[in-house]
């Protein structure tokens, strides 16, 4: 069985505690992908110390040269795109086309931030005094801790790593327990691209040991986290207590509003994709649909028919639309919600149970599920399920739809399907989310624009684009007088 080590101070090393964890394929638990190092507190501290030492070397390297290394990493990742995509499908369960798409997005993220290396890193201002030049400069902060989830195991780490590095910080990545192989590929690619030792460190392991040691380390003053609300808020409290800076991207309960004038085929396709692609395990997945009464019956029948036709299976099978959920625990969580809905007598359009036949016996499969006529206050419509489950509710008009859509603590993403520009603009005005899609699914992001949520979905410090520069740098203001 191949063993995958930790990357600390430029060297691949065994974990100090001698602990390894097997990583299994959620589509087929007989398929053991490898054994991965479980970092101890000692390993995490060594990684932070290496990153501290490397900081002076890395920040001194001109930004354009740092960008060159990211370009190289992008090319190396592109060259092994198929291998990384296969690894992702095997350890996370998403389909191969989705895994290829995500890896290609990782390449695009690296290239975008490599390009940022030749953008201005400060501004010149007018001044009140003669013989003075007044300007700002963006500078790196130091050691940055990154903690990431399993559902986008290439894209999410890279959209944190790439800006952190290009702006001159050094990095420790603690990826999710369930997806260490994709993280290993990121570390390998960055190493081969020529990063100086200690600039990027990989510590695979658990949240409660590796993650919490990283969060507690006094030298880690900047930390970016994507994951659940419970863990995120705890990390925020700890960082703020010791004067740190923290960025959180967390859960969602993303609505789609379908108005009477919607193009029916577009509405059905966008809701199906948003709710069922990646087996519903996206922070931006569609989980609530508010449909205007005039089109409700037609839309719900068409959606149920479409979802019934979806093929569930191993993500490596080209005929699969949605793969397994990522783990036994996640499967149990999703099944619990399916039971709650049925115990409360919510009308089931399709699905509602585990997939039990022979073909599914070795994986963590759940039927794609549509609940109909759901009360907007039902737990199915309030809590993040993170599985292939969507609830529909009829609404009288756009105003009621916006009110229903805003009736959750989350505010990540939302979509409207309509051809009426006036109503679309009213929706954009009224909806309390960070990401709005029009005639599109709720998921999907491009690297050049901010990505982040409102309300409980985030810490209001978005990622990507110019927003990433705000987070990963600090501003120095320079008053330069030149007496004549
Ligand atoms: P999680 O919070 O359980 O884990 C996320 C990461 O935190 C993992 O690396 C984990 O090991 C680590 N962790 C766990 N406990 C920790 C602790 N005490 N201290 C430090 N680190 C700790 O989340 P998950 O199950 O991996 O991911 C699913 C969640 O992520 C969902 O809620 C989803 O909405 C959210 N998510 C949000 C976005 C976004 O951009 N908003 C994107 C993807 C996923």
Descriptors:
484 residues; alpha/beta; seven-stranded mixed sheet; binds nicotinamide-adenine-dinucleotide
Short description:
The chain has 484 residues and is α/β, with parallel strands linked by helices. It contains 15 helices and 22 strands.
How would you sum up this structure, described in words?
The chain has about 475 residues and is an alpha/beta fold. The protein is built from 15 helices and 22 strands. It has helices spanning about 40-60, 65-80, 80-90, 95-115, 155-165, 180-190, 205-215, 230-240, 265-275, 295-310, 330-345, 380, 400-405, 420-430, 465-470; strands spanning about 5, 5-10, 10-15, 20-25, 30-35, 120-125, 130-140, 145, 170-175, 200, 220-225, 245-250, 255-260, 285-290, 345-350, 370, 390-395, 410, 415, 435-440, 455, 475-480. The strands form 6 sheets. The protein has a 7-stranded mixed sheet, sandwiched between helices. A 5-stranded parallel sheet has the order 10-9-8-11-12, sandwiched between helices. Helix 14 links the parallel strand 19 and strand 20 (about 435-440). Helix 1 packs across helix 7. The radius of gyration is 23 Å and the shape is globular. The mean pLDDT is about 95. Bound molecules: nicotinamide-adenine-dinucleotide (NAD). The site of nicotinamide-adenine-dinucleotide (NAD) has 29 residues, from helix 7 and helix 8.
Tally the beta strands: 22
Whole-number radius of gyration?
A: 23 Å
The bound ligands are: nicotinamide-adenine-dinucleotide
* Major β-sheet annotation: 7 strands, mixed
**Measured distance between first and last alpha carbons:** 72 Å
Helix/strand structural class: alpha/beta
Task: Write out the strand line-up for the largest beta sheet, numbering strands in chain order.
Answer: 15-16-17-14-13-19-20
**Overall residue-averaged pLDDT value:** 97
Count of helices?
A: 15
User: Low-confidence segments, ≥5 residues, pLDDT <50?
Assistant: none
Sheet-strand content, in percent, reads 15-25%
Helix percent band? 25-40%
